[in-house]
Amino acid sequence: MEIIRQLDSLRSALAKIRETRSVVGLVPTMGALHAGHMHLVETAMAQCDSVVVSIFVNPTQFGEGEDLNAYPRQEAADAALLEGAGVDLIWAPTVDQVYPDGFATNVSVTGVSAGLCGGSRPGHFDGVATVVAKLFNQIRPDAAFFGEKDYQQLAVIQRMARDLDFTHDIVGVPTVRDADGLALSSRNAYLTPEQRGQAVALPDTMRDAAKSIAKGDDIASVLEEAKEKLIASGFHNVDYFEMRNAETLENMTVFVKPARLLAAAHIGSTRLIDNIAVT
Ligand code: PAF
Fold first, then answer.
1. Strands, E, within 8-124: which ranges?
2. What is the pLDDT of residues 210-240, one digit of tens each?
């Protein structure tokens, strides 16, 4: 397995891979890999002849005061995991390979990026869409794999791919959870043992709220009570706890399938997100 940091080497390595293997999968990551990422890799391995994993902590998707500097970086451990999984190539570019001097282009997806994380993290999805568009052009994969845990991100990337004529498959992969239900996230590493215990209130509350809405309870009251429950459980701020159309991400005031609950809340200095289908 090669770790490549420069674009010219990437192009040669990809050309070599393409000589013998026709379906190339891409798993874009920011590193600090956990079982959720490895599930994306396994899914990609099962569907592709060759898998490329990108590791790049993309500065443009972090806002001022966010955790860009603190974001966990553990390339050697990540590489060991990926090598064990049979990945062919890690694309770990330096910042100048992604954002050369004078870089002046922004990919901005409207609609699905409005509100939710787009509301609480202004500019975040421009950063994501721009870097993912670049990764797609750099790797030219036949399929790219993203976790459903970042549900709005997945919707933004699907919209961007349709709008910009990227013809490869965008594959959404279900969230991997710890035994108690907390969605795996690189940011879980920030939680103290006490906060980790409290954090399970997020998936628990989302599951209860989804059940209440499905059985016909008043949506506004369910969402309000869910926020209160999170605060009572140790979260100190809830960015949002909302129900949206699962495909368009439009706001919903009455329950019609397909519907999805999406939430983001802060515990200590950690912001956690999660989402669940309402069925
Ligand atoms: O989900 C992530 O890890 C990142 O947002 C992504 C898709 C790799 C873009 O930097």
1. 24-29, 50-55, 89-91
2. 999 999 999 999 999 999 999 999 999 999 9
